[in-house]
Amino acid sequence: MIRYTRHTVLLAVLTIEAAAHAQSAPVDEPAATPGPETVAPVAPVAPAAAPAPADTARLDEIERLARAAARQQELLAEEAARRAKTEPRLTVDDKGFSVSLPDRSFQLKFRGLVQADGRFFLDNNALEANDTFILRRLRPSFDGTVFSLVDFRMQPEFAGGATILDAYVDVHPWEWLRLRAGKMKAPVGLERLQADADRVFLEQSLISNLSSQRDVGIELWGDIAGGLVHYVAGIFNGAPDTTADTDINHAKDFEGRLFVHPFRTEALRGLGNLGVGVSAATGNRKGRLPIAVAGLAIPSVPAQTGLSPFRSTGQNIFFQYLAPANDTTGAATVFGHERATRINPQLYYYVGGLGLLAEYLWLKQGVQKGNTTTDLTNQAAAVTASFTVGGRENYDGTTPLDGLDPAKGTWGALVLAARWSWIAVDDATFPTYANPVASARAANAFGGAITWVPRRSARFAVSYEQTRYDGGAGTAASGMNAAVIADRATEHVIIARTQVSF
Fold first, then answer.
1. Cβ burial, residue 487 (10 Å; 0-12/13-18/19+)
2. Residue 303 has pLDDT above 50, yes or no
3. Domain coordinates of the chain in residue numbers?
């Protein structure tokens, strides 16, 4: 803060006037230098005359103006500080577009994901007809915060038809205690929980067939000790594996996850990002029989089995429970019945450019066909290893050390990845609950991927994966002839992707 006193103003004015007088006064000839025997007399210094009344008035006016100017500067500084605390800020970066108050008590973020794929099959005449270019994902996302207390997300999907992927509200009074309600990813499946834009492979592995894509419910979750421990405990509708999010009965699923990051301490932080944990879920469900509407101009309602088919990396169905299209009574259709339980141990480890993600999923599923019921046990596992050149690898994606800039000789990051995954169906499934000449008993997939990440928001990737099957082909039984079981032809698929995410 600037303060002006009367003495300061008086000195400033006298200095300015003296300087002006010196510049305007005539210049005299220099006096002769006195000789050795000549001593120049020293004139006495006269006392300064008191300022005239007119000068005093003028100094008062100058002082008043100086104080007014100083106050104006103080007001402008206060107004600038107030605006800095209250005016919204617009931010644009690789994480999207956001508008927020400086304290982030209110904010709105707009993000997006676009994935354009080419999918091509090799050495299989039947599958080569499926070669195609597709828009794999088209997802705008709206995230926000209200009163520093409530977060929300709205994320639709427009690729392949409009649907809602995420729509939830998240109340977070503390970091260790949050409440989320709505449609979201359930806590089972490590690969499933990873963002679609961040995976090093272009499609999820075979293990994803045993977990649901999204579910509707409510959960408590949080991070303890700065993220050393992460937990989730929730109640969900119990969506069928991979697809629908609607509830088909009154029963609900109880799901939870406990995940530990042992290196998130000051002493071990330099060892990388290690996460180890387990997810579990259990709940009752029962499928619905088809509803025939007679005499009305509306279509019949098909059966809701509560079970989903299994798909390969190329998105081809290789296993499904029996569900004949002409079964109007439901006697020949297999339905989910009573309890389904999942156990899912999981881990990941990332350090520098190295990454490893592994998990196993065990599913015990009750099924019913007519008056016959049983419990079937299906299992799956997956391991993904990656190595990044020119970047850092983590569970939330690849970050180049230097973004693309040819003038500086920087080209982003290059990610090399390999993956193995496996799924096995309970032997008791065949032939009562699934057709052995149409559905495989097991599948093994192995593949590799290479991704160029010029910047965090862009990716260009190519992957190859082959999937070998046990069963799933052959000749059905007829008359006195027993069924002849053969292995389904190996699937070879190449997927190329251009991705932009922000």
1. middle
2. yes
3. 91-501
